[in-house]
Amino acid sequence: LSDLKATLVVAESATGGGLADRISSVPGSSAYFLGGFVTYTKRMKTDLLGVPEDLLKQFGAVSRETAEAMAIGARHRTAATWAISITGNAGPTTDGEEAPVGSMYIGLAGPRDTTVGHRVWPASDRARVRAFAAQMALDMLNKKLA
Question: Which residues fall within 8 angstroms of residue 2, CB to CB, at 6 or more apart?
Fold first, then answer.
């Protein structure tokens, strides 16, 4: 990101800031990392990222559509080159969402397009599901930059 003079912002739900922590722990990350949003509730997704309430009602907070809207909203609100979003259900229980425990959606909005990845990990360990999602997000960005 530094070599490209690009910037990055994150919008996290299920990972609760874990992705931002991983990025900001790298020395020199302040050259490209603008910061992030931890939008754990639907209201925060709407208020801070501009995710439409109708979209949340139709698809749920844990969905491809929400991950995409979160990434686009974070990028739009900060003018970052890249935005990563994570929304999911880390478990061990569900809050009524239709997505199974262990299901994570990662959105990546960039200068040309927005992509969304999805993965369901075995829900045996909440911390691992969250760590795997953060790693998947970083891997997605790395592949786009390569």
Answer: 28, 31, 32
Look at phi and psi of residue 35 and say left if phi exceeds 0, alpha if psi is from -120 to 50, else beta: left
Between strands 82-88 and 33-38, the pairing is: unpaired
Question: What mean pLDDT comes out for the span 20-36?
Answer: 97
Other beta carbons less than 10 A from residue 2's beta carbon: 10
Residue 75 phi, psi dihedral angles, 5° rounding: -65, -45
Amino acid at 64: R
pLDDT band, residue 99 (cuts 50/70/90): confident
- What is the C-alpha separation between 76 and 61, in angstroms, rounded? 19
Residues 6+ away with beta carbon under 8 Å from 91: 101, 102, 123, 126, 129
pLDDT surpassing 70 at residue 65? yes
pTM as predicted: 0.95
Q: DSSP class of residue 18? A: H
